[in-house]
Amino acid sequence: MLTRLAALAAGLLLTLAPATAQEKIKFTLDWKLQGIHAWYYWAAEKGYFKAEGLDVSIDQGEGSAATVTRIMGGAYDAGFGDMNAIIQNAAARPADAPLMVYMIYSKAPFALLMKANSPIKTIADIGGKRLGSPAGGAAIKLFPLLAKKNGLDPTKVEIVNMAPNLQEQMLIRGDVDISALFTATSYMNLVAIKQDPDKDFRWIYYSDAGLDLYSNGVMVSQKLAKEKPEAVKGLVRAINKAMKDCLANPDAAIDLLAKQEPLLNKDIEKRRLVYVAKTLIATPEAAELGVGDMKDARMNDAIATIAAAYELPKAPAADAVFSRAFLPTKAERMLPAVTN
Amino acid sequence: MKAEFGRKAASVALIVGMFAVWEFLCLAFNVSDVVLPRPSQVFVTLIQKWPALWPHTLQTLYTTLVGFVLGVALGIVIGVIIGWSKLAYEVAYPLLVGFSSIPKVAVVPILVLYFGSGTVPAVITALITCLFPVVVNVATGLATTEPELEDVMKALKATKLDILWNVGLPRAMPYFFASLKVAITLAFVGSVISETVASNRGIGNMMMIASAAFDVPLVFAGLFVLALLGVLLYAIFSLVEARVTGWAHRKTEFAMG
Asked: Are B213 and A268 inside 8 Å of each other by CB?
């Protein structure tokens, strides 16, 4: 009798309040908490996820490629991670690789860094010079392709390996002439060692030199995309809305993030957020297509590039790694101007 | 008594002296706080940010202690089995050594694939880091029981279990309690390693966030908290050891060391 009553009550509750039946989603970030993660916490705090019928728990990450393996392992349903890592995994294990549903960094953060007074102005000038990078880093892995596209024989460049946190110092000391690195990390490293990253240095983005890759975005497991497409749409809609709020008001975004982790350095994290927003998110392509979408032709080139750089057995199809089916309308995806 | 006081005073003087030299060298060579903060800066950071550090400290303490308790329990079981049975010892030892040689930092991402990031991987990492010394010590303690005592027990028609209970285990106690001091500090290392890789809270996680923002004094504050907790727990288990197995030591004043 009691169980029947309980069942009845449960049934009543379900019909009366469908919003209480929330879809649970485990979401992983690409790294420890930083300014660029503000919008996920914003969406959670402001109830955007809840409004979509989602109960999203956010965990910090251990690298943007690890987001892909975390989702493939099944412990996470969705996350913020690297497109190129999806391409690599989709070639080997097409059934398990996650699906990118919302492209955020439409420009890859790989760049060559040199001092502003360096004689090196183009990639062709690098011949015979010393190039520093951590062994196995993505930027150095892609360098031979970059060199070939710019008519430089990559074997003519002397590669010097070092730990990632020494790249800027060794460049400043003159131990190397150029450094191949991640812009989002190095820019803030230079700020921290009291350099002016804009005035004292010259940056050559891979994407401006013919090696045009996509980078991080929101990805979901194939299972979630297939079984709960409405939940994925809701997730993307909530993140999109929160990101627009955060870019329009970075101070409020960092304040909210600081409530999550009071030990964050607000000045540095705000500067990081604004730098990444201006260089990697609010790109000309995002202005043209709206943030979240991508160009098929560019994507196919990127896949071919990754397949060549990593010697993949076969290149996955573009629709196996990215889907625009879950995106909100283009009007909703137009970014506000990024304020300081 | 007087000698003991002298040793303690010397120990405190060494710690204070180390900080003083550190402070002096940083000032003398004008070392930037991004490279090496002065201890006074670290203490100020520690006190100012204590309300925000406290939840991280609790989390680390929690995962460490849970992992330690589970690790010790499992360590006793495995230690008794391989210490008591020569066959089990020979069969299982290579596997155990293999397990203990694995760098624990490499295990964490695998644990995350199964359990997600957070408390569970930290507890398991603490467990597996502190397991081995307990197993080895308990097994050694059992294996080194004097054969004469066993012979006496056998002559009195004691069963194998009787011998284990009345001779083996009491004899293994000094080894076991000595291993606890090592195990608790290792459990700490395990927890913090796991937190630096995959966690939303804990001293390890806090240090990663602080180093990404180049807040080096805060990173050092985290190290200080870890060192303090480590000393505290080590002292607690030294006291427990002195209390429980004081009979096995020639002089009680060695118990702290």
From this structure: yes
Burial of A318 (0-12, 13-18, 19+ CB in 10 A): middle
CA dist A72 and A139 (Å) reads 24
Burial B211-240, CB ≥16 within 10 A → b, else e = bbbbbbbbbbbbebbbeebbeebbeebbee
CATH code for position B177: 1.10.3720.10
Domain count, chain B: 2
Provide the shortest C-alpha distance from residue B111 to chain A (in Å).
10
B35: closest CA of chain A, how far (Å)? 10
- Nearest by Cα to A210 from A287, A139, A305: A305
Res. A328 pLDDT band, cuts 50 70 90: very high
Which residue, B71, B111, B99, B101, is CA-closest to B195?
B111
Domains of chain A (ranges; CATH) run 22-107+214-333 (3.40.190.10), 110-209 (3.40.190.10)
pLDDT above 80 for B249:
no
Structure tokens at B81: 């089995």
Widest pairwise Cα distance in chain B: 75
Report d(CA B193, CA B103) in Å as an integer: 10
Residue A96 burial class via C-beta count within 10 angstroms: exposed 0-12, middle 13-18, buried 19 and up: middle
- Contact list in A for residue B52 (CB cut-off 8 A) is 261-263
Complex-level ipTM: 0.74
- Beta-bridge mates of residue A158: A130
- pLDDT, residue A7, reads 54
Domain that holds residue B242: 35-254
Reported as a single tens digit per residue, the pLDDT across A107-153 is: 999 999 999 999 999 998 998 999 998 877 788 888 988 998 898 99
Taking Cα atoms as reference points, which of B175, B15, B156 lies closest to residue B80? B175
Q: What is the mean pLDDT of residues B217-239?
A: 92
Asked whether the beta carbons of B237 and B163 are under 8 A apart, the reply is no
- What is the sign of the dihedral through the CA atoms of B162, B168, B174 and B177? negative
